[in-house]
Amino acid sequence: MKEAALARYEKMRGNAPERLVSGSDDFTMFLWEPTISKQPKARMTGHQKVVNHVYFSPDGQWLASASFDKSVKLWNGITGKFVAAFRGHVADVYQISWSADSRLLLSGSKDSTLKVWDIRARKLKQDLPGHADEVYAVDWSPDGEKVVSGGKDRVLKLWMN
């Protein structure tokens, strides 16, 4: 099983160098290619508060960041260049998750909502209210048909597309 997972990873990665991203409480992020250089490839700025979560898209083309500044930002996953800001949450954004096809991004917030963002259109696709309190965790099902969320209200919700 480990060998099969490694083979899938190597196939998806191709000849591109491995990339890492770090987010910080100083509101910045750094894009790294550790096999090429010990210096960061890009310094990424734009958030106004702590960067809480960073996540590469499954296809590696995009990078998303969630922040206590109530925003989700989209970056080019190869160059680190800023692409778009997604605004709509009215409180800290705790976690983000990509759909398997990298077309949709899910965010969960202190404002008790989940939001689904359309990457191609660069706008909100769907607002998912329903939790009684902060949403701490969000994720997609592998088939992209469902999302799951959990939060401070101790409720695990399964959302169908």
TrEMBL record:
The keyword Lipid biosynthesis does not apply. Keywords: Nucleus, Repeat, WD repeat. GO terms for cellular component: nucleolus. WD repeats lie at residues 44-85, 86-127, 128-161. Signal peptide: none annotated. It is found in: Nucleus, Nucleolus. GO terms for biological process: ribosomal large subunit assembly. The keyword Hydrolase does not apply. SMART domains: WD40 (SM00320). This is Uncharacterized protein. It comes from Aegilops tauschii subsp. strangulata (Goatgrass).
